[in-house]
Amino acid sequence: MSPTLVLSLIAGYFVVLMIIAYLTSRKATSESFFIANRNAPWYMVAFAMIGTSLSGVTFISIPGMVAGQGWSYMAVVLGYTVGYLVIGTVLMPLYYRLRLVSIYTYLEQRFGFWSYKTGAFFFLISRAVGAAFRLFLVAGVLQFAVFDGLGVPFAVTVTVSIFLIYLYTFRGGLKTILWTDTFQTLAMLVCVAVSIYLMAQELNLGFAGLVKTVKESSMSQIYFTDPKDDKFFWKQFASGAFITIVMTGLDQDLMQKNLSCRNLQDAQKNMFWFTIAIVLVNVFFLSLGVLLYQFAAAKGISLPVNPETGAVIGDNVFPLLATHHFSLFAGIVFILGIIAVTYASADSALTALTTSFCVDMLDIKQYEEQRQKQLRQATHFGFSIVLVLIILVFRAINDQSVITSVFKAAGYTYGPLLGLYSFGIFTSRGLHDKLVLPLCLLAPLLTWFINANSEAWWGYKFGFEILILNGLLTFLGLLAISRPRNLELNPVA
């Protein structure tokens, strides 16, 4: 694919987003920026959330990881269903009852000022790092496919990519995001369906043959044998449940969309249908991964390997095949798909970071609307710069599959949120509020120390369930600094 063609695709796609942004951001206010005036149709929210949840990591890393991990990730996805059930039946009723704009204000009502700021702080760190990881992956693909050949530095690629996202989100916020993410989710789903169809054609497979090929492949294995293995099904399943609770239910990004629904019943319907859709979409991505490796083997294509380990670099498989070995049409489909899913994830993250910082750190509602607008737009621009810097740091140190990096980072940064909310919902005790931040900083450090030594101590290798350990350590620490609750000062259950 020529760089000119790819640049034309990006430009055309961006024009469509700008048109949507223009139409949806007129007469925008802080209320529409943060929660879309609490008037969004549930089916639109459910559909838009698919693109937000998946990101470029799903589009590239999940198909690429099947050679080394099989379908072990499917256990994580099945665990999602339990997590979404908890969110729909426990967390969303709480958020709607309190009519929250930022979900972290619950912690202030339940425990106090420092607990509230601690929760918001860990979200800001978690979402900024997670969004940067996802953008890093896609910027790398664009660099590989286009900008290396033009001599454009990676830093410029990243800066321009985030600047484009900033341009169509800074004015309308969530009201715009719901429409752009709906469009982008549709584009992504069409692209993955077309990719699977074209791969099946290349391998001369009908529908039955496609299903049989995926089912019988050694790369479709799910691991039930060794509980100490980080790919063991029930470890992955439990990890998926807790990952969903924290990365969706305790995350302002995705909950911000849910809080834009008209009422709790609509939000719960959204969560039900979204759960079904997200499982099916991940099945498609894992199936695509098997087909990619089958295609490379059938055509005798050498895949990129890590020179130190000799293992295939999974994150590079789909981009390499799509841009160098597929037909022109298939390559175009790939580029459009990865742009769609990346913008859907990144624009939502940028808006959520802006919302949390403005509401939780700046207490923006104390100001009149014009001042709110100034602070909101300055914050939006500031987080755009932060994302650029994190991506450049991550490029300098990354040495593993990005999806693994995302979930491992989540284990350390979302663990304190899991501990705080669990303690607030499942106990009736209060906290010595000023001790919460030091405790929540200590828990990830202890988690890292245990993880670094677990194989030597017990022969046990932690996977994504590192999040559960972190949340448990936080919960136990909170129990140690707890006190009988004063119901008059802390009325929120």
Gross geometry: globular
* Lateral strand order in the biggest sheet: 1-2
The whole-number mean of residue pLDDT values reads: 83
Number of strands: 2
Helix percent band: over 70%
State the order of secondary-structure elements, H for helix, E for strand: HHHHHHHHHHHHHHHHHEHHE
Low-confidence stretches: none
How many H/I helical runs?
19
Based on secondary structure, the structural category is mainly alpha
User: What is the strand content?
Assistant: under 5%
Query: How would you sum up the major sheet?
Result: 2 strands, antiparallel
Tell me the quaternary state.
single chain
Polypeptide structure, described:
It is globular, with a radius of gyration of 22 Å. α1 packs parallel to α7. The protein has helices at 3-24, 30-35, 42-69, 72-98, 105-110, 113-150, 154-169, 174-202, 207-216, 233-249, 252-258, 264-299, 317-324, 328-361, 369-397, 402-413, 415-426, 436-458, 466-480, and strands at residues 430-431, 482-483. The chain starts with a helix and ends in a 10-residue tail after the last strand. The mean pLDDT is 83. By secondary structure, the chain is an all-alpha fold.
